[in-house]
Every structure is written in C-alpha cells, then in structure tokens.
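Exercise 7. Given the components listed, write out the predicted structure of the assembled complex. Treat all entries as one system.
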Amino acid sequence: MTNPIELQYQVEQFYFHEAELLDNRQYLEWLKLLDPDIQYVLPSRINAQVENRLRGSQSMIAVDAELEDKDSEGCPLREENIAHLTVRADRAYKVNSWAEHPPPRTRRLISNVRIKADNQGLLTCRNNFLLHYCRPGSRNFVYSGERQDCLSFNSDTINIRRRRIILDYADVNYPTVGLFF
Amino acid sequence: MNVTLSHLVNDDASLISRRCWTDPQVYALEKKGIFARSWLYLAHESQLPEPGDFVQAYMCETPIIVARGMDRAIHASINSCTHRGLPVCRSDHGNTKRFICPYHNWSYSVEGQLMTIPQERELQHQPDKTQLGLKAVPRLDNYQGMIFGSFDESIESLDEYLGDMKFYLDAFFERFDGGIEIMGSPHRWLIDANWKLPMENQLGDVNHGPYLHAAVIPPEANEEILRCGYSAVPKAGHGATFRLMDESTPWEQLAWGMEGMGGILGGTEVQEYLRETQAKAVERVGPIRARMKGLTYGIYPNLSFLWSNTSFKVSHPRGPDKVEYWSWAAVPADAPAAVKRVLRTNYSSFFGPGGILEQEDSESWMQQYLGANIDFAEDRPFYYGLGLHDEIKPDPDLPGAVSITANEHYARAFFTRWRKQLEAVA
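Answer.
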C-alpha cells in the first residue's frame, strides 16, 4: 500500500507531465501514456427536463441527468478508443490538417486532483481543468470541465485506462471539442 | 432597401457577391423571402412516440415546440408566451401535460392552447383564452418521418416541394424495414459563419474533400468519387451526391454504414447487420438505387442529410455572421440497441463538434465569413462558374440534372432560387 500523500504526489506529477506534453504538442509522446484498451468518452450535455416528482431531492439537479453518455440511447460527442486517438494525434503532424495549421496555442491548468479509490493497481481519480485555446486569426476560447479517470498504476508507470470528460458548456460555443482534454 | 439582387447574384449565378454572406439587409430579406416561405425541418417522428412528448426546434431564429398532442397528432407552436414573450419550454426534450411560463405562470397545453391565467380569478372580466394560445405553425407535413413546418399558409405541399428529391431520399430511407430513428438531442454548435455555407457544403460540394480533408480521407475514397461520383439537382435548391457502384462491387465496399468508424471498428455483429441490410436493398429500393452509395444531400433552404456518416443537420441562422448548426445521429430503427450505439459513431467520430473531419469544415466556414467581410473587393465576387458551359445530359435512371461532382451546378441552382425568392420581397 502506497503512502496516500506519496500517491497523491505521484498522480499530480503524472497529470502535470501529461499537460506539459499536450501543451508542447508532443502528441505521440502523449499517446504512450494511454492504455491500449483506453475508453475515451465525452458525453453530450443537454438541457434536461426537470422531473416534478424529484423536487426537493439531490437527483433533481444531478449533473448525470444532463449527460448523454456511452450507455445511453442518446449520442455522446465523442466515444473513442486508441484507434480514434491515434488518428487525431497523427493528424497534427500533417501540413494539411487545416483547422490547426498554424497550430493552436493551448495551456492546460489541472487542479483539484482527487483520488477516489485504489483498487489493486487501478486508481479512480477526478480532476478539474481549464484549457485556454486559440488559433491564429480567431478568438480565444476557454474550456472548463472535469476529467473522470481510471489510471492503471504500477510502481514506475501510470497509464490512462478510461477517461470521461464532463465539459461545462450550455451550447457548444467552441471551434471544436475534438481536442485532447 | 438598398439591395439590388442582380448585383448580388448575376443571371447565370456564376458570380456571387460577398455581401450575400455578410450584409444585414440581405439577411433581413432572407428571413422574409426564404424562411417565411419555405418548408423548414423541425424534427423526426421517432423523437415523439407518445402523447405529451416534445422537442425544441427553430425556424430561422424563432424557437418552436414540436409535440405529440393528446390527440396523437403532431403540433408545432412558437415557444413564446402570449403574455410577456418568455419561452414556456426550457428543456431540449421531454414529456409533459403543460408548458408553464415562469414569469406569471400562464400555462399551455402541449397542443399550444392557453389553459390557465392565474391572475384572472382576481378580475371582473376574464380574457378570451381561446384567442391567446401559443402561435401555431400554420402548415405541418411529413415525409419519411421527417416533420417540416412552414409559416406560409399557401405554400405547395411538401410532396411537391421535395419533387424528385424523394427519389434520392427513398434510396436511403426505404432500405430499412422500420425506417430510421434519431438518437438523443441534437449537438448544437455555434460557429462564426453564415448559414448558407454549411448548407452549400452538403448540397453538392464534395470537391473540397481531397484537399481540405486530405489529412484524414484516404486517396482511394476520392478516386472512387472521381470514378463513379455524381451530383444530382432534382430541383433547384435541393441536391444529392452519391456514388453509383459497379454491379460487381463486393458488399463491404457497397453497403451503407461500412465507411464510418463504427462500421470499420464495430466488429462482426455490426458488420453482419450492415451486410444483411445491403442484401435486402435490391428488393426494397430497386437495382439502380441498391448500387447507390450516398454522400451528402441538401434540402432547400437549410436541411442537410449526410448519408455516409448518417446524420441530419440543420443550419439555423443567428444573424449573417453566426450559425447554430444542429446535428443528430440517425440509425435504423430496427437495429439491435448495441448496433445502434456503434452506428451513431459513424456520425460522431467524423462529424459534429467533436468530429475529426468537420473541424476542418467549420474552420473553412469561419474563414470564408472573414473573407466575405473584407473591404475594397466589391468588384471581385466569388466565382461559382465551374462547369457553367459543360453539357449536362439527362440520365435515363436518375432524375434531375445529373453531373460529375466537379460541376458547381448545384450551387448555381441554389443561388438562382435564392435570388428569385429575395427579388419577390425586395
């Protein structure tokens, strides 16, 4: 059993390293942080009907009620595996990926890292992010959200096994949500 | 108004002024001449199976509630309280008996009738509630489950409006025993672009594919379009692009759904479903249309249907400089639930706000708006003349004007109709 303070430190350092790779556009290096069986999901966020019978309860205002997720009959914005993410990473190195050439400038702030459960080498973690994004000739955008991760944890390596991204948007007022969050 | 339409679109529609995309006066005319007088897509029947079910929609910038009434009929009402104008419906979809205005609690039935005015019991004279319901969309019609509305009471039937576009729509919709259904709420994407360019992009412009999308689309896909791709204009303003494959094409290269990431990565259950669907195609849509492998469709003025990555899309204007682009995943209604969940990724992997392909399109649409909005270039309109003098011969099997895809006849037909409709109200 790892010391919880040490574990918190290791996980935070992992996230800072991941953000550094992405902001430095080292996408192929970033891919190496992923478990080959990664599930990467960005649920769609809707304006859900408030159910009258739930009034007064926590469920009435639950975030999950606003999400069209992987197992729903709705349509998540993204539900991807290593193949999708590899296509996205490779695209960045091509001169004709026009939306991002010249490349966008990004800066990721990762905070509020919470380790929820430690189950025999699998860590359930949540963390918050702010992502500044701008393309030359365009406006600046800030993405705000939470990442709900499952990390596979060995003594010297951490890999991302699952990532679920909760974006705090009402309407998608961004040029893309196809980024690496 | 200071708008001369022949200065915006020349007689053969080969020259399109930059002002068509940017001028607020032109946009005002578009509302009056086009959005007030066309059939506009509202919703799909599969979203409203039960009485009380509703979804939100827009007709241009006007918010609409589409609902199945207690009479089981479809109703469409403007989502604005007769008292002070607030929206009375605030969720994307759901099921209800009443829409209630938050301001003073006026309540409306799902059919749009005003049911209660809480303040009226204090008054000596009560208003006539039968005259104060939500404004109804005067005309509603349906084709293959697609519900359209029009503000023009005297508009032709939807059947006439679509004309031979139905031949191409049926080539897709008739393939499935149970029709299609929509999965979930639309993805609503705000883009700093004019509404017409996303529409034009799907109406017939597959010509940008080999260039704008070269980072992702393999050259073989483009060679296939060059070899057997067509751009059909069944009626000015509508368009269909597709490939007409050889009779010897193996099913994997022919079947709907096999081109998307869901079809490619989905595994045997999904691929078996797609194979079986293609096997029934000759019987269901006939030998010619069974060989059709569709690309993009457009229905005037602002509905697109993406066959290859199955999605409905509506380009809702928000002024000349912004569009609220809605897109939905569509799947066959009779597919197993697990297959539907995979097939929706045929849409979402490549299209919509998270799509790997459409991020290139939306960037182009934004940059086109910037290019249209510059000064000192009024004498350099956009060139829409590709194929203007090429002959288009009638095709015995395919209705409408059917051309190779490089011919921009689809866009000239759109702008010819657009000019005529604006001239009628200018």
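Discussion: The radius of gyration of chain B is 22 Å. Residues 40-142 of chain B form a domain with the Rieske Iron-sulfur Protein fold (CATH 2.102.10.10).
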